[in-house]
Hints:
Pfam families: DnaJ, DnaJ_C. This is DnaJ C-terminal domain-containing protein. Residues 3-68 form the J domain. It comes from Hyphobacterium lacteum. By secondary structure, the chain is α+β, with helices and mostly antiparallel strands. It has three domains: 1-81, DnaJ domain (Helix Hairpins); 111-183, Urease metallochaperone UreE, N-terminal domain (HSP40/DNAj peptide-binding domain), CATH 2.60.260; 187-261, Urease metallochaperone UreE, N-terminal domain (HSP40/DNAj peptide-binding domain), CATH 2.60.260.20. It contains eight helices and eleven strands. It has helices spanning 4-7, 16-30, 39-55, 58-65, 82-103, 124-129, 202-207, 263-270, and strands at 116-122, 131-136, 142-147, 156-159, 175-181, 187-190, 193-201, 209-213, 220-224, 233-236, 251-258. The strands form four sheets. Strands 6-7-11-10 form a four-stranded mixed β-sheet. Strands 1-5-4 form a three-stranded mixed β-sheet. A hairpin with a 6-residue loop joins strand 8 (209-213) and strand 9. It starts with a helix and ends in a 16-residue tail after the last helix.
Amino acid sequence: MSDPYKTLGLQKSASADDIRKAYRKLAKQYHPDANPGDATAEEKFKQVSSAFKLLSDPAQRSRYDRGEIDANGEEVAGHHHFRSSRHARRSEFTDIFSDLFNDFGASSRAMKGGDLKASLDIDFALAGRGGSHRLQLPDGRKIDVKIPAGVEDGKMLRLGGQGQPGHHGGPSGDLLITLNTRPHRWFSRDGDTVRLDLPVSIQEAVLGAKVRVPTLHGDVDLKVPPGSTSGTLLRLKGRGIQKPGKAAGDQIVRLLVDVPDNDDLADRLRTWIPPTGYNPRKNIKI
């Protein structure tokens, strides 16, 4: 795998926010839904996702920058993770002294286990509505992670007692999970507001229509006003992010007029005469 920084088009000095923005842009560009049947785009999407997974984890990113692991997260020969080695050394000496004190009848000191870190990719709907997602840990355990409704991209969840086992009767450490929301082809969010790019036909835009629209809370009917154009914004009240104890946000629908590849339509437009003074670009100024 190539350098994850180059894959995302970033410098090593990039901030966490820069990494998230670059990932969202490229993932949306190469998403399989936007490039059906395009194997090259699918492979690029996988590379972008893999690069983001490594660089979005502060600990993994630091190890990569120090040359301890490669772009796939694998250990590089000749390098050792200092924290792990130090922990192992401390555990070794703890065991030695524990055995010594136990020989003299003294009790060993209870120690809390270390924390574990993991990342979890979730889809847009799960991040918006909340719910449960099963995660398998490196040690083989499977746990159900509760995703809060409206969770932000990059949010870290702490699961108490799900980390490494404690020493000498001490409590287990915690599991720290970083949530990464996969970009959606049509939906995005702005705080508690959900935004949807909705394709409509020329007929629906010109004559007006009632169309079925998906939301986080189920499909609803939306009235498209006659004479609508691409970029027309319509509001669905209370159909956005619903966080506990807060009023639900709205869903903003942006209409995108879809032009079909149709010979009959093309023939009709060739004979169409625009109204006097009509210029769709008359208000475009710098």
